[in-house]
Every structure is written in structure tokens, then in C-alpha cells.
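Work package 3, deliverable 3.1, input record:
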Amino acid sequence: MKSNITQEMIDKDRRGFIDKVVKGTVGGSLMLMIPMSSNLFAEVLSEDKNLKNSINPMDLKANYCFMVDVTSCIGCGNCCVADRKENNVPEGQYRTWVERYVIDMMNQVYVDAPDGGEKGYANTPIHETIEEVKEAFFVPKLCNMCDEPSCTQVCPVAATFTTPDGFVVVDSEHCVACGYCVQACPYGVRFINEQTKVADKCTWCYHRVRKGKLPACVNACPTGARKFGDINDKQSEVAKIYNSASRLRVLKKDLGNEPQLYYINLHEEVV
Amino acid sequence: MDAGMMSEALNYVFPNDAHAHWTLMIVIYPYITGVVAGAFIVSALAHVFKVEALMPIAKFALIFALSWLLFVTAPLLTHLGHPERALNMLFTPNFSGPSMMSGFGYIYMAYSILLIFEILIIYRYELVLLKEKATGIKKSIYSVLTLWTNDKSIEGRKFDHKVAFVLAAIGIPLASMLHGYVGFIFGAVKSVHWWFTPLMPIIFLLSASVSGIAGIILFYIVIKKITGKMHEIDTHTIKTLIKLLWAFFILDFLFEMIEIAVHAYGGTTGWQHISHALSGPLHWSFWTMQVQILSILPFFVLAYLSLVKVSRWVLMVVAPIVSLMLLAQVLFMRWNVVIGGQIMAKSERGFATYHPMMFEKEGIAMTVIMLVAPIVTLWLLSKIFPLWESECDKEPLH
């Protein structure tokens, strides 16, 4: 009996090993040809739903937070591509985008985000009047998932609301599309979806998180600049950063919206 | 630092924020609501505060308010992405916010009911008299409007007066709330520096009064002119309305300027953004039109009409012109608030754009239609409700 079980485990392990070798080979080969993040490919090739995070989808006591490490972002735009694909966002509208900041020797700040940074910045020259660059960095933007959200406060029909586990979402079947939330959001992350004619915004991929998956943009980020997790889980990366001496900042703190989107090493020029 | 280079370098707006989302429809929504609230206040001054000089236009003010009231929701419904869900605002309001916009739905409904009852009560006796003379469909309409009563007794009419007095008295705070609320919808949006001021509801309320009074002066004189009854216009009534307009306008303009002055004196980063907008994309519509041509000029004209003894002819020519200017002032003010607030992009590094088209869904043609529709409605209503004070209103009740 015992030997049978052992044999089964060996067989399973062998099958798993062969499976991984095949996927790794195929995936690795493809990655040489197609410039896409390895994480995205790993998921495409794998059937495993719980890839690399320890999110318990039924844990309503979890305190999810999103972190963006500005120093790690390379402005590749993979996150934006993954987000558009995952959430069927119409062209010209953005649930997430990546801004490029360039500061010259005169301390003049130049900000741009052509196509929301979706096509990356490798072929986008910096502003022609910049003679010498003092500093340059990329800032991914997305829903700040405020603890005190302005958008849910102003919604006349309560179509946008905070879920018990802290996600601000929109009921697209109830929204009247008055646009008040678009005005009220201090971060400009909301828009009226051209196709559905209702308010739309980044949800931190709530539909994925509830299944124990990471948000699509986090999954697609090749440098780990985008991080997501439960701050109550001491073992999670976000909790470790949160409890360390890292310089964390939220956007427009003075407004009192208490965002749950934290930026690591964010420059004060960023609004 | 070179200013030109600075503005070029700073011109960045968030990608979803490049164009104003609230259009001309949201410019004329507070405009129409304001005219409604302002006109009601004129009527209330006559009915509640017994300002005798305003009695000749007390009934007209109510019908004028009603004709605009019927179109308050038109621009809103045109703007909504899902107008078929509009009643969600009443059925599933957001109490936990609470949402000011859903609150407006209730106040608008309450005010509408009150205004209609006020009109039916004030007109009841006259409509009973008209019903006796009317035939055919008009008789049926009057029957419905008088709720099938033929009561012409002194007691009945005294009771009407009491009810009208109470309704008008309730109507004053309700009309003030109606428009103060609209101001709150903008004034409570903390993400827009240009809107976020406690003065906003006050400015909206005062400008509403200005537009209502100005509308009544303009249409009083124009309708009398068109119908060839200029001789019926009471100079004292026009003079009283002009003084009232001047008083409200002084307060309105004062608060508009105080708002700017406090922002400027504070000199926060919010003001830097506002000042760039006021010297840039809003310069013409704010400084040139709203302030210089349509505020400072009318202020002196109104002062002249109010303080100097002018001939009847001058009064009848200048009063409608200055009223029209102030109606335009309020429209520009609405534009500068609604569009201006959106042009000052949330990136605080540049300006969004808004260029309305002539024939788009929420474009210029639609705006004109919505501003003309209440005037056509006023003409239609005048076929049922006599606009002016009639002989039966002057009959003694004892």
C-alpha cells in the first residue's frame, strides 16, 4: 500500500517535472522573441490559479493595499497593456497609466504620458527644450482605493460603493452616468466608458483578487514595481515594506481621502 | 524663470481628464434652476411680505417660474449616460454619502409640488370665473385645474389666501434650498479648487435671485410691448424691481469678487492654478465678459436707474437692456464655474479643453432649444393662466 502511494507521488512528481520542463522551454523560447513580461507568460502557460500570492479570497478581514515602487518602474507599459486586455477598456480611456517625469538642471518639471504610457517610452523622446536631465522617473497611476472615497460619497444612486473587503467598485447595471464621481475623484482615475456609457475605473482587478489571483497589472510588471497584498498578513511583501523604514507616500494626502495606494520613494513633484 | 517655457512645460493633464466631461447641459441646468428660484422669490415678496408694488407681477412671476421649472431636468436627462435609470436617484438614493445630487431630486420634487399647488390656489377663483365663460376643451382644462369646484364664496377665497400665504412662506426656504443646493453640488467638490468654497451656495443663491428678477423685468416689458399694452406697465413696479435687482446684484457680485480675493490673498498652490486659468483660457469669459462688461457696467446703470429720477421712456428702454445683460452675466458665471472648474485639470499642471459643437447631442443648438423652450411654454401657459393681475384679484374680501 505504502509503496503504491510512493509510486503515485513519484509518478505525479515526474509528470509535474516534465510539465514544467516543457512549459519552461516553450515559455523561455517565446520570451526571447516576444518582449513581454515573464510573469504574464508564466500565467498564460500555467493552469495553477494561485500563482505566487498568498491571498485568501474568503478573508474579509484582509486589508489589501497596493504599492508602487517608483524607483523600480521602467515605463515599459506592460501593466497598461495587461489592464486594457483584462478589463476590456476602450482605446483612449485609461484605468491605469504611467507618467514620465523629467526634471532638468533648472528644476523645471516636465510630465507627459502619451497614450497613457501604454506603448512604453523607449521611442518617445523627452521634451526638446530639455538640455540636461537632472532626474527622470516613471509613476504608474491607478485607483487609490481610498478609505474615505469622494466618488462613493457623491454618487446619487449608490451605484459606486466600497465592498466589505475595501474595494471601491461600480455597479454598471445601476449607474446613471451623471459623471459626478468623475468630477469628485481627485486622482482623475474615473471616466464614463464610451462603450457601456457608465462610470468606469480601476478595481485593482477585484474579480481576480477574489479568486486568489493578483491584479493583471501586478502580474504583468516585469520589475516588481507594482505590488499587491494583505497588509495584515505579516509575511506578505507589502506588510514587510509597510512595517519597514521605507519612505511611503500617498497622493494628495491633504484632501483626507486616505488612499490605500502607497508609493515607495515618490518624489514631491508628483501630484 | 521664463513664463512661456513654464506653461509649456507644465501642460500636462491626466489622460482621462483631457476634456471637460460636464458640458453646456450642466451649464444651463443651474441657470434654469436659478431662474425658477429667483422668480419665486419675487412672487413671495408680493404674497408673503405684501410688497404692494410687486402685486401686478406676482402671478406672472409664478407662471414664469413654472415655465422654467418644467425644463430643469431636461439638460440633466440629456446629459445622463443612462437617462432611463434617472429615477434610481429617487428610488435608491445614496443616503450614506449622503449624495447631494440625490438630495436635489427630492427638493426639486417637493418644490415642484409646492409651486403647482401655489399656482392652483392663487388662480382658483379666477379659473372658476374663466370656466364659466369657457367652452369645449378649455372648459375641461379649467374644470381639472379648479379640481371641479365652483366655489366663489368670500369664505372660500379667504381660505385660498391663507393657504397661498402659507405655501409661499414654505416656498421661500424651499426655493432658497433648491438653488443653494445646486451651489452645494459644486461647492462641496474638494478635488476642484475653483469650486471648493463655502461661498458657492451663497453665490448661486444670489445669482439665482438676480437672474429671476432680471428675467421678470425683461419679459414683463417685452410681453407688454409685443401685446401692445405698454401703457399698462406700472412704473413703480419696474422701479421697485430694478432696486431689488440692484440690491441682489450688489451682494452677488460682492461675493463673487470676495471668493477670488480670498483665493488670491491665500496664494496657495490652488490659487496659482486658478490664476493661470483666469489669465489664460478663462480670461475672456471671466474678466472681460462676466466682470467688466456684464457686471461693472450694469452696476452703474442700475445705480442710475435706482437713484436718479428718470423718465418713463428711459426706464422702459434701459430696464430690459440691463436685465438682459444681467441674465447674460449669470449665464457666463455658470459657464465659468462649471466649465472653468473642469478646465483647471486635476494634474494641477495644465488645462483641459472644452469646445462645444453646434449640432452634437449636448451642443450649442440643443442649449438654445432648451433656453427657448421655457419661453414657448410661458406663451402656452398664458393661454390658460392670465399672466397679469386681473380685476377679480382686486375685489375686496369682506
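Chain A touches chain B through 46 residues (CB under 8 Å).
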